[in-house]
Design a protein that fits this description.
single chain, alpha+beta, Butyryl-Coa Dehydrogenase, subunit A, domain 1, Butyryl-CoA Dehydrogenase, subunit A, domain 2, Butyryl-CoA Dehydrogenase, subunit A, domain 3, four-stranded mixed β-sheet, four-stranded antiparallel β-sheet, 8 strands, 53% helix
Length: 385
């Protein structure tokens, strides 16, 4: 636990400003974090102090009244300095939103020392078992891609259990840091500093009150909190979780490109028209992606997502990601051999953006199929009536 109680924040500008301030040390340490495959303790503390860990915590436990649009902009602000730090900041916030679906007793345990507990989660397990008892479950398993696990206080992990009709159903389990080990397995081309290592649990007893059904969480029902942000279906908001860091990284790449063009001009070496056009196109694509993500966030800030909003948000987050990848690719190519130097920050951003965009939530094809399913089903129903 951090044991840190922070002064309450009441405005979106304050949070975004704090996030931008956290992005300064994140950017300063980004190259080192990439080499060492972990964020420094100072950067993690800066993210906590900025308010990411408490952003979506229920108000009854000291959480902030942060809306999704503000959180998206705050994550992007950090991402301008370091995509991995932004990824962790985003997951600190959104994993706490998951914990709002746990029973009240579990929430009281998780946030007993204040709203800044550092939560991580993993849905990915090749070997997870949960044996039921009268008062809970005996949990064992191995969960991969647990971003930020090295500095976590609690973990939310998923295992399949028999349902009422004996059909398998997914259940989330909350386990404290003392209950799991970490195996360092994350060694990738991009997003290296997220520390998305493997989490291991061996025959840990998890009381019933520290569990909830994944279907309830994904559907946005059953949360103890009655706040709107805790009643949104997961697919209406989880694209924002992973697209916002990419948005910030792309903005950072654009600033590097603009600086390079300005420096060339100052030296009397005018950029070519091709370079200027490429920069303008990338800037437009990044702006367009930002507008898509802002609309998605604002839609779930206003009201509970309908099915139409859910599939549109899923589509828009995936499409925004494609635009951002294309923009960064353009800027990277435009940088020539300079950008390909191992010491140049643009190549790190290029690796990070392409790596982050591979997340399954951000794939356009399934999002597009989900978006078109409703109208096509309606057309089929009309034809058969």
């Amino acid at each position: 636990m951090t044991g840190m109680l922070l002064a309450p924040r009441t405005t979106s500008d304050t949070f975004v400003s704090a996030a931008r301030a956290a992005g300064v040390p994140a950017g300063r340490h980004a190259a080192r974090a990439d080499r060492e495959r972990r964020l420094s303790a100072d950067v993690v503390e800066a993210l906590v102090e900025a308010g990411f860990s408490r952003a979506l915590v229920p108000a009854r436990h000291g959480g902030e009244a942060t809306d999704f649009a503000t959180l998206t902009e705050a994550v992007a602000a950090v991402g301008e300095g370091c995509a991995s730090a932004a990824w962790i900041g985003s997951l600190l916030a959104y994993t706490a939103r998951f914990a709002a679906y746990l029973p009240a007793e579990a929430q009281a345990e998780i946030w007993a020392d204040g709203p800044d507990s550092r939560l991580v989660s993993s849905l990915v397990s090749t070997a997870a078992t949960a044996r039921a008892t009268d008062s809970g479950w005996h949990l064992s398993g191995t969960w991969t891609y647990a971003s930020g696990v090295e500095f976590s206080d609690w973990a939310l992990v998923m295992a399949m259990v028999p349902g009422a009709d004996e059909k398998p159903q997914a259940r989330f389990f909350a386990v404290p840091r003392s209950a799991y080990r970490i195996e360092e397995t994350w060694d990738t081309v991009g997003m290296r500093a997220t520390g998305s290592h493997t989490l291991l649990v061996d025959e840990e007893f998890v009381p019933t009150h520290r569990t909830c059904l994944m279907d309830d969480m994904f559907a946005g029902r059953g949360a103890v909190s009655d706040e709107l942000r805790h009643s949104q279906p997961t697919f209406a908001v989880n694209g924002l979780t992973f697209a916002a860091p990419i948005l910030g990284a792309a903005r950072g790449a654009l600033k590097l490109s603009a600086r390079a063009l300005a420096e060339k001009t100052a030296r009397g070496n005018e950029p070519s028209e091709t370079q200027r056009i490429a920069h303008a196109r990338a800037a437009g694509e990044i702006d367009a992606a930002g507008l898509l993500l802002t609309r998605a966030a604002q839609s779930v800030d206003r009201a509970r997502a309908t099915d139409d909003v859910l599939v549109r948000n899923r589509r828009d987050c995936a499409l925004a990601t494609q635009l951002l990848v294309g923009a960064v690719d353009t800027l990277f190519r435009g940088g020539g051999t300079r950008s390909q130097s191992a010491s140049d920050p643009l190549q790190r951003i290029w690796r990070d953006v392409n790596s982050a965009a591979s997340h399954m939530v951000l794939q356009f094809e399934p999002a597009a199929l989900a978006f078109t399913r409703g109208p096509l089903d309606a057309a089929r129903a009309e034809k058969s009536s």
